[in-house]
Automatic annotation (TrEMBL):
Pfam families: WD40. The keyword ATP-binding does not apply. SUPFAM superfamilies: WD40 repeat-like. WD repeats lie at residues 12-53, 220-261, 268-306. PANTHER family: F-BOX AND WD REPEAT DOMAIN CONTAINING 7, WD40 REPEAT PROTEIN. The keyword Repeat applies. This is WD40 repeat domain-containing protein. It comes from Sphingobacterium bambusae. Gene3D superfamilies: YVTN repeat-like/Quinoprotein amine dehydrogenase. The lineage of its organism: Bacteria, Pseudomonadati, Bacteroidota, Sphingobacteriia, Sphingobacteriales. Keywords: Repeat, WD repeat.
């Protein structure tokens, strides 16, 4: 079994509006955040200080994604634009555009050297990482899709839509394998390890699903409101969830046993409004939300004999 201890390392202020997205930075101690400010901000986690405004943008930002092995940060916006910015040169390399609606999720398919984005119109766009040429465009859902999750082997990926459906696709040819209505309300977060797909929704539910057919293994109600993030720890078999209910919870990945509850009610200097995004940075968890704050949490995980 595991014992988890959490302490607040720093609170970073500077955003003037709610924060919707976090990405790792090019340097190991950096992260990028963005939201309703119409600007992407870089922070230094080591010093706990503001570093710079990377770029101004014309619309609210809902997705940030640093391309693995590169200095390119991909930015998805409410106006349907997808920008590729070189964070070293601080220059806009390329600007892509979806047909209509906001872009809510962006992921890279490293093996195929492709970038995939989806959002309000329920249509996926796939671009080449090498030249940003549009390669494919296909409809996944008749409604909004807020989240994408490629499985670890990068053979399949899952989408979650506003009607509570999860769609499983083959990455090789982007053909649908299966779909299943899992949630009673919109799917708001997806994550996967080598065994399972985890899904969180606006119905405050979390499901542990079989990857091959999306059948339910376990389910629970981890929060009072929307589950906005499911973050698998990079080395330990635990994951964190963040929610509109302002709390962070840490769970055993196999048993779904609750290991830690971090909230104002539990005496932590936690977020006072919805937590919209989070990212692991080694053994630190970085969270951000509607209170315009970025919080850095030290998370100590110990395995103990039961």
């Amino acid at each position: 079994m595991y014992v988890v201890d959490v302490s607040l390392s720093a609170t970073l202020s500077g955003h003037q509006n709610p924060i919707f997205a976090i990405s790792s930075g090019l340097q190991s101690s950096r992260v990028f955040t963005a939201g309703n400010d119409k600007g992407v901000v870089e922070w230094d986690l080591g010093s706990g200080k503001f570093k710079r405004i990377l770029c101004s943008v014309p619309s609210s930002v809902y997705a940030l994604h640093l391309l693995p092995g590169s200095s390119i940060l991909v930015i998805g916006m409410r106006n349907g634009e997808v920008w590729c910015v070189d964070v070293e040169q601080q220059t806009l390399l390329h600007k892509m555009k979806t047909e209509k609606g906001a872009v809510f999720a962006i992921r890279s398919l490293t093996k195929k050297r492709e970038l995939i984005a989806i959002g309000e119109e329920g249509v996926a766009y796939v671009w080449s990482i090498d030249n940003f040429e549009l390669l494919y465009r296909f409809r996944v859902s008749p409604t909004t899709v807020r989240t994408i999750e490629p499985f670890q082997g990068e053979n399949q990926l899952a989408f979650g839509d506003k009607d509570g459906y999860i769609y499983l696709y083959d990455i090789a040819d982007f053909k649908e394998i299966t779909k299943r209505k899992v949630h009673d309300m919109p799917v708001t977060s997806l994550a996967s390890n080598e065994l399972f797909l985890f899904s969180g929704g606006r119905d405050a539910k979390l499901y542990q699903l079989e990857q091959k057919d999306l059948s339910t293994v376990q389910e629970l109600t981890p929060h009072l409101f929307t589950v906005y993030g499911i973050l698998l720890h990079p080395t330990f078999p635990v994951f964190a969830t963040v929610s509109r209910d302002k709390s962070i919870k840490i769970w055993n990945s196999s048993s779904l046993a609750l290991l830690k509850n971090v909230s104002l009610d539990r005496g932590y200097d936690a977020h006072r409004l919805s937590i919209n995004a989070a990212i692991w940075h080694g053994n630190q968890l970085v969270t951000a939300g509607d209170d315009k704050l970025v919080k850095i949490w030290n998370v100590e995980i110990k395995e103990v004999l039961s």
